[in-house]
Design goal:
With 244 residues, this protein is α/β, with parallel strands linked by helices. The protein has six helices and 13 strands. It starts with a strand and ends in a 5-residue tail after the last helix.
Length: 244
């Protein structure tokens, strides 16, 4: 079984976010990057578990510049067998999906995190599936493979939904799919020798253009109201509370 895991690089969760060039460009000064946790903890780890249980290979793919090789090597240390990096600087989910789809035509299962923690778009998985004309299941919390079929569970309002779909297909992974795996020293050393293939991007129109970024308003201080002072609470809700 051939498994492909799509991984992305995101700012570390505590990074200070700022923009430059008239709020049209993300300011990377002082920003530490990590592998997107949904891709790493759930999609990648579950792919490695499936490989260990059923045999096969795990390939990771990333669309980005050479600086992304650090997070790719971490994926190899966790247990992926090889990696593909499409050498491009993407501006949109559609461009990323097109590049992944061009490299993903011969895989039995394509996994990725439900979203990235920077843009939270949750778009790439569905787009990859559309480009490849494959079934797509989002927000999977459990995934098993047997007899050429995937059994996928995901949370829905009031319970859980289980689907059985023939391979190949695309699945986005949510919390519950697997548990975080820390690469050991042996894995880190072996990762240095695993192949990382850099390929040129295919021609693709990037339809998304950034007009500007906006930093959200900072949190205001919390006002504590005495439980017996309901009149004050009502006044604050009417006069000062913001409805989102």
């Amino acid at each position: 079984m051939k498994l492909l895991v799509c991984i992305s690089k995101t700012p570390e969760t505590t990074a200070k976010i700022a923009f430059k060039d008239g709020n049209t460009t993300f300011d990377e000064n002082g920003v530490q990057y990590i592998m997107n946790p949904y891709d790493e903890w759930y999609a990648l780890v579950r792919a490695v578990e499936l490989k260990e249980a059923h045999g096969g290979t795990v390939t990771v793919i990333n669309v980005g510049p050479a600086s992304n090789d650090v997070v790719i090597r971490k994926a190899l240390a966790i247990g992926a067998d090889d990696a593909i990096r499409v050498d491009a600087d993407p501006n949109s989910s559609m461009f990323v999906a097109k590049q992944i789809a061009e490299q993903a035509k011969d895989y039995d299962l394509i996994l990725l995190g439900k979203e990235t923690i920077d843009y939270n778009g949750s778009e790439v998985g569905a787009m990859v599936a559309e480009y490849l004309d494959l079934p797509y299941v989002s927000y999977g919390t459990n995934l098993d493979i047997a007899d050429g079929k995937a059994t996928i569970t995901r949370d829905i309002e009031g319970g859980a939904e289980s689907s059985q779909i023939a391979l190949p297909l695309v699945v986005s992974a949510a919390k519950g799919m697997a548990e975080q795996k820390i690469p050991n020293m042996r894995g880190i050393m072996i990762a240095k020798r695993k192949p990382l293939n850099v390929v040129a991007p295919v021609a693709a129109e990037d339809l998304a253009v950034v007009a500007s970024y906006t930093v959200p308003e900072g949190r205001t201080s919390c006002k504590m109201i005495d439980p017996d002072n309901m009149d004050e609470l009502v006044r604050l809700l009417q006069e000062e509370a913001k409805v989102l």
